[in-house]
Amino acid sequence: MTRISSRSGLSDTIAAVATAPGHAGVGVVRVSGPEALAIADALFAGRRRPSQTPGGRFLFGGLLGAGGERLDEGLCLVFRAPHSYTGEDVAEFQTHGSPAVLGEVLTRALELGARTARPGEFTLRAYLAGRLDLTQAEAVLNLVEADTETARKQATLGLSGALGERVDAVARDLTLTLSSIAALLDYPDEGVPEEERQTPLARAETELEALLGTAHAGRVANQGARIALIGAPNAGKSSLLNALLGYERSIVTPIAGTTRDYLEAGLSLAGVPVTLVDTAGLRDTEDIVEAAGVQQAVRLAGGADVVITLSDGSQPREALPLELPPTTRAIHLRTKADLPAAWTDPEVLEVSAATGAGLPELRERLGTELLGDVSRSEAWLGSERQADAARRALEHVRLARQLPDDLASIELEEALLALAELTGRDVQDDVVDAVFRNFCVGK
Ligand SMILES: Nc1nc2c(ncn2[C@@H]2O[C@H](COP(=O)(O)OP(=O)(O)OP(=O)(O)O)[C@@H](O)[C@H]2O)c(=O)[nH]1
Ligand SMILES: [Mg+2]
After folding, report:
1. Does residue 391 form part of some domain?
2. Domain tally for the chain?
3. pLDDT tens track for 188-247
4. Does ligand 1 come within 6 angstroms of the Cβ of 339?
5. Which residue of 100, 115, 175, 312 is 20 to 30 Å from 273, comparing CA positions?
6. Counting ligands in written order, which one lies closest to the CA of residue 258?
7. Is 239 annotated as a binding residue?
8. What range defines the domain where residue 348 resides?
9. 397-427, pLDDT tens digit by residue?
10. Residue of minimum CA distance from atom 32 in ligand 1
């Protein structure tokens, strides 16, 4: 059971502009709650009154100001509880996408008794009405914010409930084990047959591990990743950045020490939003500007999701003057592969920014580093909140597998609580609030 039924202020009628600020062909004002259709009657003049219109229909007509003057013409979409996004009566007004029109229509809805919706409140109502679980609500947010194909695909999967189903399957295995333990509680000498307990638990553990294995990919798909280009001066960092981008973003010259400040550029790699960071070539230098750039490069390498190290393949090989932490995801490159090679190394990928050789292989390697080898057709964990709950559930399941029956039950109850928090079936207000705070108003 959800413990948030006591949440106040959810029985009133809310309104918001649902489309992004700015000028557009069409804009939408949403009104949801018990008064939505009464407000629509006063705000909209069409062939029929919205309150007399069946759900799932739309009317064409005029949007009216306080004095009955026409603010704009457009559509009124009528939805009736429980067949709407929020589960409540909803009126959606499609107007011309002008900030002035949308502002006046919203103001009129507020004068007529609606209050301004809080960020994410439409989706919060859908969640409280049981139309979405919390993983689906988070998928809505990820879908609204999706910039790339991978993010969109995962959000769509999450929205379909696929993630919730994966979690529910684990919860069923835990419940199954709990009930077989409970059934034998009256016969303490017997205990639960080992395989009856271990099989579903092993399955639950494997699935939780698999789910957690998707957390990194999910984070990268939704939030993007930073990739730093690191190497000695003249290694070809700026040339590679330009080659990956397909345009001349960074200055390239034969002079060592060309790039001093760092420089960022966005692109989509493996369907993931990526920020490429070009940095100053690493070397000891008396020049205080260049030295500051070198320091920055070291810091940027530390904060990057993936570090690409570049070494000039046409010059005698030099060690990278930087130690990367062992946890760093790094890809090592031998650059300028179009020139005669001064060294080779089978461990190192060869690229040429000049001819484009090796770039497809580099893109593929980056895809693997960014997303891992997770299946793209399965639902991934979509937020740090979800990963944290899954991690706690896994810890309890692992403990349960090592403990005697009575103690194992306690761990399994805890694991189930963590899973219920993940899906939002049993969750504290503050967790729910934190989820919906990230939404925009109107969603
Ligand atoms: N033949 C050839 N020359 C390259 C290639 N990549 C870079 N160069 C040349 O190498 C020199 C240095 O290239 P940059 O891209 O500026 O190197 P960098 O690592 O950014 O250098 P700093 O900014 O000084 O740290 C330039 O003269 C480039 O034209 C390549 O793939 N093939
Ligand atoms: Mg450079």
Report:
1. yes
2. 3
3. 666 667 777 788 999 999 999 999 999 999 999 988 999 999 999 999 999 999 999 999
4. yes
5. 312
6. 1
7. yes
8. 221-371
9. 999 999 988 899 999 999 999 999 999 988 8
10. 336
